[in-house]
Design a protein that fits this description.
- The protein has 2 domains: 44 residues; 218 residues, Collagenase (Catalytic Domain) (3-Layer(aba) Sandwich).
- By secondary structure, the protein is α/β, with parallel strands linked by helices.
- The N and C termini lie far apart (92 Å).
- It has 4 helices and 11 strands.
- 30% of the residues lie in helices and 20% in strands.
- The strands form 3 sheets. The chain has a 7-stranded mixed beta sheet with strand order 5-4-6-8-7-3-11, with helices on one face.
Length: 271
């Protein structure tokens, strides 16, 4: 005859087993839900467009940063060596040299949107000169275009950190004591796709928009810096000294306002 005691014990054990199975199922379900939510968040971050500027935010681990420093002539103790003699146009604006580090904007991100921060501005009508500098490049290559999105406040963003906005601003640049200006490019490491570019003019040195001999000309320096937005690299050898992308400048200099042969060939190569 079936023992009633065994029946009770069996039912108790089955209840405990089912409770444990339910508990394990709930734990597994919660872990799966958390993992899915994290994956969706990463996917959304990758595809997000910040501030209406068309800048796609990529995971920080995939980004690299390139800093380009514009120096005054005579501030660098050891200058790079000269080009070989006899090259056509050497030392003139007809020299055909340019440097392209393969970083680029994709067509879907052109026109490139940018904003301007007037804080610490050191020259009257500086924005007009800055816009003229952008126009100098777009007039040569219509495939390259920019759109001015108005003023921005970038003062709380430390130099060298991203905020999702391409910006032009004025800073002390204490960490770059010999610089006239710097441009920082963020790009995706594998594809070389540019995702953000910022230009900083040093606010503790004299500036002018009229070519004054005792100050750095805004349009002259800006035209050079915006060559980096394309993305052209600095040139340092003596044969390139009359090109806009030559990496040194003097107070009163205005030659970089107009592009040389190498500058034009460079933008036409990229875009």
């Amino acid at each position: 005859m079936f023992n009633r005691k065994y029946l009770v014990v069996t039912l108790v054990l089955m209840k405990r087993f089912l409770s444990l199975a339910c508990f394990l199922f709930l734990v597994a379900y919660m872990l799966l839900t958390i993992s899915t939510a994290k994956a969706e968040k990463v996917s959304a971050t990758w595809g997000a467009i910040k501030n209406g500027s068309g800048i796609k935010a990529a995971p920080s681990t995939s980004l690299a940063k390139k800093v380009l420093i514009h120096y005054p002539k005579g501030k660098i103790q050891k200058l790079p060596g000269n080009d070989k003699k006899g090259k056509t146009g050497c030392g003139t604006d007809q020299y055909s040299k340019y440097e392209y580090p393969k970083i680029h904007w994709v067509s879907g991100d052109i026109p490139v949107h940018w904003s301007y921060d007037r804080a610490n501005e050191k020259a009257s009508k500086a924005l007009k000169s800055i816009q003229a500098s952008f126009d100098t490049w777009t007039l040569v290559e219509p495939a390259w275009q920019t759109t001015y999105d108005g003023q921005a406040k970038t003062g709380k963003i430390p130099v060298g950190e991203r905020d999702g906005i391409n910006s032009v601003c004025w800073r002390r640049l204490d960490q770059y004591p010999n610089a006239i200006a710097i441009t920082i490019i963020w790009y995706i490491r594998n594809s070389k796709k540019a995702v953000e570019i910022d230009t900083y003019f040093k606010s503790t040195i004299p500036w002018s928009t009229t070519g004054a001999l005792d100050a750095y000309d805004v349009q002259n320096i800006a035209t050079h810096e915006f060559g980096h937005w394309l993305v052209l690299d600095d040139l340092y050898k003596n044969c390139t000294s009359e090109l806009t992308m030559f990496g040194y400048s003097n107070p009163g200099e205005i030659e970089k306002r107009d592009l040389g042969m190498g500058d034009i060939l460079g933008i036409q190569k990229i875009y």
